[in-house]
Amino acid sequence: MTQTSTGERIALFPGSFRPFTAGHADIVARGLELFDRIVIGIGVNPAKSVADIAALVAPVAALYADEPRVTVEAYSCLTIDFAAACGARFLLRGVRNVRDFEYERDLADVNRQLSGIESVILFSRPELAAVSSSVVRELESYGHDVSQFLP
Q: Which residues are catalytically annotated?
């Protein structure tokens, strides 16, 4: 694995994470086995107010308050630019199925060509494979209890 100039292996785990699910937490836990530090980057629309951004970051940051190797930050630029700004040489990507993997593999090739940043793609554990932010949001919109999917 390539290392930063400090010798620290840092990975950026980018996404919108609304909400942050058990599947995401699984990827972070497994990523900590590979990297010295993980930055969870919550991509936000630059048109959102600061209060909206804080509302996205705060619950995820609270989950990792006792884990010094994980930081949570919002960003509103290209993912590869943010990765470079926070010293990450790797993008940590989580996938739930083969179709997701094919998309992420193609995206990894583009990122590598544009920036030299490598991607590490991890499959979520099987019991969490169907859990994604979009699925949880949809269930929630129909009034279903989604607490079992949240970390």
A: 24, 48, 96, 133
3-class SS of residue 116: coil
pTM comes to: 0.84
Buried b (16+ CB within 10 A) or exposed e, 52-90: ebeebbeebbebbeeeeebebebbeeebbebbbeeebbb
| Superfamily of domain 10-142 in the CATH hierarchy | HUPs (3.40.50.620)
pLDDT in tens, 39-61: 999 988 777 666 678 888 999 99
**How do residues 139-150 score in pLDDT, each as one tens digit?**
888 999 988 888
Domain ranges (residues) in the chain: 10-142
